[in-house]
User: Fold these one by one.
Assistant:
Number 1:
Amino acid sequence: METVFSGIQPSGGFHIGNWLGAVQNWVKLQDDYRCIFCIVDLHALTQHYEPAEMSERVITLTSELLACGIDPARSILFVQSHVPEHTELAWILATVTPHGDLSRMTQFKDKSERAPDNINAGLLTYPVLMAADILLYKATRVPVGDDQVQHLELAREITRKFNARFGETFPEPQPLFTKATRILGLDGKTKMSKSVGNSLLIADPPEVIRKKIGNAFTDPTRVRKVDPGHPESCYVCGLQGYFASPEETARLHEGCRSATAGCVDSKRALAENMINALAPLREKAAEWKAHPDKIRQVLGDGAQTARVIAADTMARVRERLGLLAP
Ligand code: TYM
């Protein structure tokens, strides 16, 4: 069985971009692959955060992943900082990573621009830690949204460099995409992202969803209700396909095109469909959150299994590097 590895940051807001772009796919992959899913808390340290909130964020995100259908009986679900080999391998991989490649990463530039007071070295070496996450488990498939493609390309490059220098050790990881590789934020302009503040969270209650969708971006060429709309270029119509049946989506789009329905009608339908789709996730997540001991048990078991694989890989890596055994 091939190994799938993917990660998600506990950045305090699991949004529909994460869900549609990544986690829905993770859930399906569990049927066909050995899956390893990681809550990458060490990656999250590269951006401003409140230490007092971090452990709670990890617990909340775990409850949400479990609610979405990540199944600890079939997959390994764990927290990055619970397996110290991640940072050990990251250091080693940094020694074969070209500095120039790191400074050219789009996310490094974007994050540096957004937080000029916090351009730390961790932000620069972020993709090296990502490569370590993947290679530690010799994963061959990595499900991600398109924002991570460049990082994955670099992970492949790092793999080639390591194998060329020290001998064939790691397989080259390949990306796996969903049809929703890039969900835009509610502004309809940039990628949905917690740090940009344009996201709709899985945990948002119905009244918040109605309000957020009510303010979402629609077809700018449609000024009055009687103007025919262009569902293919409308953000709200685009999202409908993920939350309504194909028949209902076609009907809503036709209403927009023929101007028999206005943007407000479109938004109302989307908000109600979203509320219905997200309600079971919110409920299941709340059930898990009511039992933090069970969440800790899942993460403890996951880390234990992950550590066995990680230790085995690192023993081989140390040997390849020619390090003196202790
Ligand atoms: P993160 O936490 O930003 O996002 C988790 C996953 O969600 C996807 N995603 C999106 N997909 C579509 N539209 C969006 N608006 C959207 N926003 C986020 C991301 O592509 C990702 O798949 N660096 C990674 C975490 C990571 C990782 C790894 C991933 C660490 N190590 C190793 C794969 C393999 C990140 O920050 O994801």
Number 2:
Amino acid sequence: MEMKSRIQEKYKTIFGEDAQLFMSAGRINLIGEHTDYNGGFVFPGAIDKGIMAEVGVNGTEKVKAFSLDYDEYVEFGLDEEDKPDQAWARYIFGVCRETIKRGGKVEGFNTVFAGDVPLGAGLSSSAALESTFAYALNYIFKNGIDKFELAKIGQSDEHNYCGVNCGIMDQFASIFGKKGNLIRLNCKTLEYKYFPFDPKGYRLVLLDTCVKHELASSAYNKRRASCENACRAIQKNHPEVEFLSDANRAWLEEVRGQIPEEDFLRAEYVLGEYQRVLDVCDALEREDYETVGELMYQTHFGLSRLYEVSCEELDFLNKLARKLDVTGSRVMGGGFGGCTINLVRDELYEPFIKEAKVRFAEKFGHEPKVYDVVISDGAHLVTD
Ligand code: ADP
Ligand code: MG
């Protein structure tokens, strides 16, 4: 049965009435990786996989929540000490608390919800969950909180109630997402701009290596340190540089001998990626998806060879995509595992997926998972 009907049926069974339906989405990031902490751009979009929740005020001081996917019912109060034990319920509790902290009204409500964003695959199921409830509570309690603040409610929820020290991109994309559009977000100024993304004749597909190499968090901290080191060196000559992305290639060259070569290569990637996001935006305005794809390959090269956050499995899929003449392919997310994102011409889709499954399984003992994505709307009230 369709997700929406399952939710409505369960809600009626538990609570004996109907309420309003809300949904929000997971996200992809087309290009702009390891750029957020360097004051650069990210370029995400919401996808056609999300969380849907029916939500209605219940006149009590308790939240009564049922997760269809976990087949579990949880009740909790709205004070700081009422934090529930179940991880999924904590996401909802955190949204309530962060809304209250911002002066919003939240009273008891009922909810039944479900989703189809694969968990932990790099598509941000958690942001979809937070954004659905941040949007829904704002709507039903008429708080008038602006969209940026709704995204921050999700981010603070992760920081304060779920132990994840994330940036703003996932929640931003989930709240601001618009069908047929990607959103370029400047991570330094938080200015954003929509760009059309409607690749007729192409499909976007993710291939999930289903591996997560241990290195990820220590390497992440090292990459940040390298970027800060390069940035500090450049600042001596150019005090106006606040983040690495404020610098240019010539300024980086000036300090080449003064910093470890490794730090230089990391910084070289970051400056290249800054320009690539801008180039992708230009190409999209011309509907030139072949150029977009080529820039995706360049990002993969940079992440693999200069930034060194790829791994054998990701490089394998990327190389296979190139060999089969796939338009664009790169690792998406922090690296050391997770997915590649691929822009594939319609006629190549079937052979590419088939070949990727067979070849990958031969080499690594399991098939990659396949997620087709279409750029879709973010948080909204479901009216039809
Ligand atoms: P991701 O990279 O997908 O965001 P996270 O580990 O950050 O992975 O978030 C996954 C968590 O979000 C799950 O463990 C669960 O607590 C919650 N969650 C995501 N989707 C659902 C869902 N459909 N139903 C209930 N909880 C969900
Ligand atoms: Mg998450």
